[in-house]
Amino acid sequence: MSRELRTLLLDLELTYGIYLAYPSKKPQYLSDKQLIHDQFCTCAAWKWHDEASTYVIKITDNRKRFKANFRDDYIVAVKLHELMTAADIIVAHNGDAFDIKHANTMFRKHGLGPIPEKKSIDTLKAARKYFAFPGNSLDSLAKRFGSTGKNQKPDWAKMTMGDEKEINIAAKYCRNDVIELEKVFVELRPYMRNLVKIRDKKERNHYGIKQCDACGSKRFHSKGLETFNGKPYPRIRCQECGHQMRGDIKLWRLTHS
């Protein structure tokens, strides 16, 4: 039997890196040889899709480690490792280029090892691939879909120097980003063609489709056959969100023989 896939919505907030450089009025290339202090993750926020609560963890939550070294993001890394290991799908805005890479960097830094391979859904990539919106930032998309957008940003310079007030502001900012991320994800999801398939091989209704891969609805109607990679598939359309799926041709033939 199939089970519900666990979808994790995720956002991280990182500081600046600190470099040595000569004063200049022109843009400068900063080499890793000039690096004094690397970036560190001050907080992470997350939400399990279709659950009500949104959570956040900050480096200040462990007072002892924070006072000893305010750049120590070990507790954030441990929590992220636990969450991302438990998830089936990880959703983040620009997650493939930013959140997941920085999470892996923290795992390596703290000796946590890699997480199992996961299905990643990057809402920035999805917006660029399936739409022609004038702006694809999380703030722009959230406002387009009727939300309020991002919260007040922290002062990244102060946060980089361990300012607790700014870290708390960053935590609220990060938590709100996850809430907005879920709204954007739900709006974009019906148009995505690369979603993880929710299937039950024993389910014979709707040609092997148990529920909509996008919204979980069990209300469908058939839209004939389509050809993909030279093979025919029954085309199934969700009556709730409009997402289109490919059913099992063998089950279709059983009902049309």
Q: Which stretches are poorly predicted, pLDDT < 50 over at least 5 residues?
A: 199-204
CATH architecture of the largest domain: 2-Layer Sandwich
Could you tell me the strand content as a percent range?
A: 15-25%
Radius of gyration using CA atoms only = 22 Å
Which sequence of strands runs across the widest sheet?
5-4-1-6-7
Task: Give the CATH superfamily of the largest domain.
Answer: Ribonuclease H-like superfamily/Ribonuclease H
Largest sheet: 5 strands, mixed
Query: What shape does the CA trace take?
Result: elongated
Oligomeric state, counting identical vs distinct chains: single chain
Into which percent range does the helicity of residues fall? 25-40%
Compressed to H and E, one letter per element, the order equals: EEEEEHHEHEHHHHEEEH
Number of strands: 10
Terminal Cα span: 27 Å
Global mean pLDDT: 89
Write down the CATH class of the largest domain: Alpha Beta
- Could you tell me the CATH topology label of the largest domain: Nucleotidyltransferase, domain 5
Number of helices: 8
Give the helix/strand class: alpha+beta
Tally the structural domains.
2
Provide a concise account of the structure shown.
The protein is α+β, with helices and mostly antiparallel strands. The chain contains 8 helices and 10 strands. It is 33% helix and 21% strand.
Walk me through what this model shows:
There is one protein chain. By secondary structure, this protein is an alpha+beta fold. The chain contains 8 helices and 10 strands. Helix 3 (about 95-110) links the parallel strand 6 and strand 7 (about 120). The model is unreliable at about 200-205 (pLDDT under 50). The two termini are about 25 Å apart. The strands form 3 sheets. It has a 5-stranded mixed β-sheet, sandwiched between helices. It folds into 2 domains: about 5-20 and about 30-190, Ribonuclease H-like superfamily/Ribonuclease H (Nucleotidyltransferase, domain 5, 2-Layer Sandwich), CATH 3.30.420; about 195-255, N-terminal domain of TfIIb, CATH 2.20.25. The protein is about 35% helix and about 20% strand.
